[in-house]
From TrEMBL:
Residues 393-551 form the N-acetyltransferase domain. InterPro entries: Acyl_CoA_acyltransferase, Acyl_transf_3_dom, Acyltransferase_3, GNAT_dom. It comes from Alternaria burnsii. Residues 12-318 form the Acyltransferase domain. It comes from the Eukaryota. Keywords: Membrane, Transmembrane, Transmembrane helix. Residues 360-385 are annotated as: Disordered. This is Acyltransferase 3 domain-containing protein. Residues 362-379 have a biased composition (Basic and acidic residues). The chain crosses the membrane at residues 12-30, 67-87, 108-127. GO terms for molecular function: acyltransferase activity, transferring groups other than amino-acyl groups. Pfam families: Acetyltransf_3, Acyl_transf_3. The keyword RNA-binding does not apply.
Length: 573
């Protein structure tokens, strides 16, 4: 069997969307107040000055700068939470808390350091008389003048830095009022981190409901920027749930009788209606993003909404909202719909992935030149048949409820779980959720000692192993053994026995995307099926185990900011 792979990297479609939004925002700042027609409605009067092609969809998207800013906020909420949510889903609460605290510090540096450099450059230009951007009333640097005393300039720079690092409110004391988004990013990020911390041990349904209520509350408060952040977190929660439940969804589908299945007419109609609703929601999001706002010559917003905002008669703004809040709220709704529906539109997601790949380094550009979906061969196993294997000293079988007490003990072994990459699971609810996910995983088995004194009967539970999938990585072989069984050849024996069973199972093709770092340089098109094993650089013992099973070393990679050695085993077929 063969595998056809396409490099995917991280959430590349998000990078592409963010890049397009950034270009539109820059274009907006360059043209707002200077070009009149694109920022008027197609239906504005007099008709002779309007009715231009640039005023209708989809061309008006190039002048929808305010709405693009809201896309940044939705994407930020998603991107800063998805990694933490994955740690929590894996049951690694210790690593979750560690990553959460480090993310708070790194986020502040990541947002503030580049802005501090730009501010320093702006003040240097201002002092030398080269900064010509006019100031709005109440902004700028009072008392600071080019080529005069540098003290007011230094004081203004200090005020600018303090006003940017502000988690309480938006205080614009800078030379450039476009920096207002940085305090919003800081405040929104801190709200996201606090939400993830407070809901870290809450059930999934309650967690999603609470985040949804936070979105509604932000809408009610007239703070659409934070509604965007919480919407991003909500998308991350739903995405992680789908990603970590992927193997459970696949297992009933991967049946040897799959080719005999047929959709009933009613299911076909429902599927078509579902697809149609996705397209309609996406188009509605684009429409809301492109709602025009009348920019005056001095750069202010006209309080009278153009005819395109006709729906305000049926959905009037809340009494405590002003014109700008109303405008930004509906633009935010558009951003939420676009970011939420775009991943489900394969053509849009691929176009953004391909567009992003052309802006990366030459190596990544070469790796991403193919753009169609990847088709991977995976083993299939009917749930009605047990995934059993045995070796000279070990028995492997699916986990059952009776295995929970011993499994729970293993999850609490500190060094065992640190070596497994997740950390000890001290919270019973998280440990139980992890056990349940492994018990339902058709590609995971428990490992038991064979009791030779009792005709080879099942003995003590010593660990678990199998094959694991993530949505943008190649299938990975994995195992975890209790600490007292280390160094006795059990891992090598399990891996060899399990692989023999794995390669003997029937195959089907499915579509997938794969990160570039999991591929060999120069791999293109159809390549052989393989298993991988990313192992930490310091774990020489585990590296020796996979080498004995036939895995070959493919180089060093980085996963969640840690260094790993990637091992690969090609299918013998």
């Amino acid at each position: 069997m063969v595998t056809k792979l396409v490099p995917a990297g991280r959430e590349i479609w998000l990078d592409g969307l963010r890049g397009i939004a950034a270009v539109i925002v820059v274009w907006f700042h360059m043209t707002a107040g200077k070009l009149a027609t694109p920022y008027r409605s197609f239906w504005d009067l007099p008709a002779s000055d309007n009715r231009q092609l640039i005023q209708v969809l989809p061309f008006r998207i190039f002048f929808s700068g305010p709405g693009m800013v809201d896309i940044f906020f939705v994407v930020s909420g998603y991107s800063i939470s998805i990694g933490l949510i994955k740690f929590r889903h894996e049951g690694s609460m210790a690593r979750f808390y560690q990553r959460l605290t480090s993310s708070v510090v790194r986020r502040m540096f990541r947002l503030c350091f580049p802005v501090a450099i730009m501010m320093l450059g702006s003040h240097a230009l201002y002092y030398t008389g080269l900064y010509t951007i006019p100031f709005k009333e109440g902004t700028g640097c009072a008392g600071a003048h080019p080529w005069e005393s540098p003290i007011p300039h230094v004081q203004c720079l200090a005020r600018s830095l303090v006003s940017i690092i502000n988690v309480e409110n938006i205080q614009n004391l800078t030379l450039n009022d476009h920096f207002w988004t940085i305090p919003v990013e800081i405040r929104g990020s801190m709200k996201v981190y606090l939400t993830l911390l407070g809901l870290s041990n809450v059930r999934k349904t309650a967690r999603i409901l609470i985040i949804g209520l936070l979105c509604v509350r932000s809408w009610w408060n007239g703070t659409p920027e934070f509604m965007a952040f919480f919407a991003g977190v909500l998308y991350a929660e739903l995405s992680a749930s789908v990603s970590f439940g992927q193997h459970e969804i696949l297992s009933p589908l991967l049946s040897s009788r799959r080719h005999n299945w047929r959709l009933s007419p009613s299911k076909t109609v429902l599927n078509r209606l579902s697809s149609l609703s996705i397209y309609l929601a996406f188009l509605l999001g684009i429409y809301l993003l492109c709602l025009p706002i009348r920019i005056q010559s001095e750069g202010t917003i006209d309080a009278n909404f153009p005819p395109d905002w006709f729906f305000l008669e049926w959905c009037p703004p809340l009494l405590w909202w002003n014109t700008e809040t109303t405008m930004r709220t509906w633009h935010t709704f558009g951003a939420i719909l676009v970011v939420g529906k775009e991943p489900r539109l394969d053509w849009a997601r691929y176009d953004l992935r391909k567009a992003t790949s052309t802006t990366t380094s030459a190596h990544k550009e070469a790796d991403a030149e193919k753009g169609e979906k990847a088709s991977e061969t995976r083993s299939i196993k009917q749930r009605s048949h047990a995934l059993d294997a045995s070796t000279e000293r070990l028995l492997c079988r699916p986990l059952v409820e009776e295995d929970w007490p011993e499994y729970h003990k293993m999850l609490q072994e500190e060094q065992t779980m640190i070596n497994a990459g997740v950390g000890p699971m001290l919270f019973p609810r998280a440990a139980r959720a992890y056990f349940d996910s492994q018990r339902e995983d058709w590609a995971s088995v428990g490992i038991f000692v064979l009791n030779m004194d009792d005709d080879g009967a099942e003995g003590e539970f010593i660990g678990t192993g199998g094959v694991y999938w993530s949505k943008d990585r190649l299938p990975e072989v994995c195992y975890v053994l209790k600490q007292k069984f280390w160094g006795k050849g059990r891992a090598t024996e399990f891996l060899n026995g399990f692989l023999e069973l794995w390669w003997s199972m029937p195959r089907i093709n499915i579509d997938m995307y794969v990160e570039t770092k999991f591929l060999d340089a120069g791999e293109r098109g159809v390549i052989p099926e393989r298993l991988t094993a990313p192992i930490k650089v310091a774990r020489g013992d585990s590296q020796n185990v996979v080498k004995k099973a036939g895995f070959s070393e493919r180089g060093e990679i980085t996963i969640y900011d840690e260094k790993y050695i990637l091992f690969r085993l090609l299918s013998p077929k």
